[in-house]
Structure formats: structure tokens, C-alpha cells
Amino acid sequence: MQAHNPFPIKNINTHLTEIKDYFKIAVSVDCVIFGFDGNVLKVLLIKSDLAQYKNKWSLLGDIVRPDEELDAAAYRVLRERTGLENVYMEQVHTFGALNRHPAGRVITVAYYSLVNIHHVQLKVSDFGLHWHAVKDLKQMAFDHKLILDTCVKRLQDRIIEHPVGFNLLPKKFSLRELQNLYEAILGVKFDRRNFRKKFLSLGLIEDLNEVENDVKHRPAKLYRFNEKALLKNTRFVHVNGNG
Amino acid sequence: MQAHNPFPIKNINTHLTEIKDYFKIAVSVDCVIFGFDGNVLKVLLIKSDLAQYKNKWSLLGDIVRPDEELDAAAYRVLRERTGLENVYMEQVHTFGALNRHPAGRVITVAYYSLVNIHHVQLKVSDFGLHWHAVKDLKQMAFDHKLILDTCVKRLQDRIIEHPVGFNLLPKKFSLRELQNLYEAILGVKFDRRNFRKKFLSLGLIEDLNEVENDVKHRPAKLYRFNEKALLKNTRFVHVNGNG
DNA sequence: ACAAAAGTGTTAGATTTACACCCATGA
DNA sequence: TCATGGGTGTAAATCTAACACTTTTGT
């Protein structure tokens, strides 16, 4: 799945000193790559090898090339790190604090993307690359905690109004998995009956007439996302206060 | 209100040739400055004097200086053009298409801001500066129509969930003005009784026990925004389809 | 008295919320 | 037969949507 790439993979956040003298302002992209393991929301991070941020975790990012579109740069980072293409991605915010990068003025455009965590094969050479539970992350390199928090907030806003969560799930999933996903992202608990009723009534999911295998209890029915579903102008779920 | 500014006011979009040789990628900000005249949503634009965009209208923007925060650059543009400070402003999206600027690679961070249109005193030297009805704009210079459309969409999303519209109104306003504002931004009509009931029940506005002057009909009561109102997790208005 | 816009209440329908028991499977 | 999680329905409360007449002011 890894496309051939004539440029060596460098992380803007670990190999940046060379740009200092060439650009007054450098532009980078940083990708918040979300995955879901069935229970908690995870994010793909790399260990910073900048001395200053020794042992801190960093988002995946890179300099935007002068002849490269912004979105293309973000997709390139994603492809180089995960081998994935055609995944859901959204630009979120641009961070440009003067002191955000020790190597000089770097303005970074932050994206988040939603991938199926099981489709990502981490390569041996990427031994610094790991999935982290979002809610366990306290500190990160650079301003990456701020970027992550901003992207989590955006994902929360988005998933309440728009059915993007399916990108984090396997093609076939149970209602329990779907509910776990919403609860993990939004940090709330839903009533099981109401949650199911809501999704089924929206016509967003389609019963596959299949059931789970290899579970030690009554197997759940499997569904898939119905791409043809018309989006009514309604919220998917309602979140009340106790987030 | 105009702060002293040691730099001459230049519009990134009209005086950019000098940067071409210095930066591989230049970063700019563009401001979508919204105002409301009581009936329609307006945006403050300047006439492009770039030959290529002769007679096209352009957003207000400028290069971000190497030692300047992004938000500071946007506030600077706003201050230089309107004399206003401390206005509502939100970063929306960053546009970086390769060919978006004829002078070279310029990535621009778009902001929108909400100002009281009557507080903006256009200076004589700004004869190219005008308020335009948003819905009448068909073409603009550069990719500015795309940027405007993106900011309008963001404003629509925001005003449905968050009481930002007050920034476009005078301190004292009638419920009719408030409703006109929502209708102008969202492009829908609301039932007057339901709209009033909704806002009054939210506790967002405070009755001033004053009425309009100089109207040739029954004067409306005046209200002000209640800053202390607790935001319930509810939509302010509901928009159904016919937008 | 007329014109123009302000102000006001009720009801039906839809949506949300709260809540508890039986079912299917593997061990 | 037990443990585990899957699957289901109903009723109360809240919210939304539809709808028309009276009041106040200036002319």
C-alpha cells in the first residue's frame, strides 16, 4: 500500500533546522490521525527526536512544498505514514504562534483524519510510531496538545451533526460498536434503547442479516453504513451537559 | 480610533510582486468583515487594482509579518481598514491552491469578523472600500468568492448554535431587528411568534423598558444582549430545509 | 379612521427521555 | 444452568410548528 515516494520521509518537527535560513515563514501540515479500537479513541503519534522534546510525542507532519497543495501535503503525510489513501480528512485550524517551533517561524495547518485502525500496518522502520489513547495524553511536543484538543473538539462537533464516525469502524459493525464509538468520542453515555432507535429510524445503517462470530455470548447483528441515506436536518445524537 | 501604524497600508492582493523573490511560500490573512444594515448581510470589500482583476472586488488582507501572530495580523488588517478593535473574529479556513495568487505562492488564512456597520467610518482615502450585499456578489478577485462563501457558511453554522449575532447589532435593538438578522444570515423566514418566544425563553436578551423613536407606527420595545445568560445546550433557532 | 408594524397564546404533532425485562449463545 | 451481553416498547415530558387577532402609534 505504501506508494513510491522520491522524497525521504522527514518529520517537519524533527528535521527542520535546514529551513531556517531559507524561509522567513515556513508552512507545514500536521495530521491528527484518529483510530478506534472498539473502546477508546486513539491518535497516531511519533516520538519526537528533537532534544528539546525528548520523550514527548508529536503529531505527524511535514513542510508543505512550494509546489504542493495544502490538502495534498496532508494526504502525503498520511500516505507516507499509514499507507492509506482516500480516507476522511478535514482541515481544522491553522496555528501560527511565534514561538511554537524552536527551529524558527513555522505556521502549521492542522487536519484530522479518521481511519480504520486495523488497516494501518505500522512498518518496522516506524518503531517510534504508536497509537495513543486520546484521553490519556497529558503532554506533547510543541503545541501539539493544543492542536490535538482542537481537533478532538472539531470531531465532536462534527459527529453530532454528520455521520462521519463510520470511517473509524469496520465495514460491518454492531450497534454496540457504534454506540461505543459515539460514547468514546463524546465522553458521554447513552441509553442503549434510545441510541438504537435513533440510528435505525434515521435510515443511516442497513441490516446485513449477519451476526458476529466468536463471541462468548449472544452474537450481535451486523450493520453497514447506508451511503444513500438522505441526511435529514437533524442531529444524530443529543448530548446533554454531563460531558 | 485609527491606531498609529508605522507600516503603510498595503493590500497583499494588490502589492505583492515584491515578495516573489524572497519567500518560497508567503502567508497572508484575509478578513471577511460582515456588517448588517437592518435588512441584508453585507461584507466590506476593496476594489482590486491588479490589472488581472480590474473591476473585481477583493477581501481585505495582508501579508503576515515574520514576527507577527496570525490573529494579530488579522486584527491589524481590521484595525487599519475600519479603525475598530475588540471585535468578534474567528479563524475559518486556510486556502493554499497553487494558482490562487498570480504573484506567486501565497497561502492565506481566512477570518471572518462581525462588526457594527455604523461604527465603521470609511475614510476618504479608502474610496475603493465599500459595503456589498453578500447575496448580490457573483464574482470576486482571486479565490475570494470561495473564501467568502466558506465564511458565510461558517457564520451560518455558528449563529445557529451560538449567540454571535449580537455583534452585528447596535447595543439596543428590537426583536424585529434580531429576527431580520437571523433571516438575512440564514436565508430563511421564521414565524414571528415562535422566534420571539424562543429568544425570550432563552434569557439571552434583556428588556430595557425603552421603545424605538421616530418610527411611523407602533414603536417596538428595545432589548440588549444579556452577557450573563447561561448557554443551555440547545439551538437558538431551527432551520428546516428551505434555506 | 386608516395604515403599518408590534405584540400575544393555544394546540397538534414530533422528539426526547426514562426506564426493565426477556432472549440467544457459549461455557 | 449460568453468565454475558443482545434485543425490545411504552409513557411522560419537552419542544417545535402552525396559525390570526388585537394593540399602539403616526398621519
Tell me what the structure shows.
The structure is a homodimer. With about 240 residues, chain A is an alpha+beta fold. Residues about 1-20 of chain A have low confidence and may be disordered. Chain A is elongated. Chain A folds into two domains: about 15-160, Alpha-Beta Complex (Nucleoside Triphosphate Pyrophosphohydrolase), CATH 3.90.79; about 170-225, Arc Repressor Mutant, subunit A (Orthogonal Bundle), CATH 1.10.10. In chain A, strands 1, 2, 3, 4, 5, 6 and 7 form a seven-stranded mixed sheet that branches. A two-stranded antiparallel ribbon of chain A has the order 8-9. Chain A has four helices and nine strands, in the order E-E-E-E-H-E-E-E-H-H-H-E-E. Chain A is about 20% helix and about 25% strand. In chain A, strand 1 (about 25-35) and strand 2 form a beta hairpin. The interface of A and B includes residues 27 and 94 of A. The structure holds a DNA duplex (27 and 27 nucleotides).
CATH superfamily of the largest domain in chain A: Nucleoside Triphosphate Pyrophosphohydrolase
Main CATH class of the largest domain in chain A: Alpha Beta
What percentage of amino acids of chain A are in beta strands?
15-25%
Largest sheet of chain A: 7 strands, mixed
Please give the domain count of chain A: 2
Please identify, by name, the CATH architecture of the largest domain in chain A: Alpha-Beta Complex
Q: Quick one: how many beta strands of chain A?
A: 9
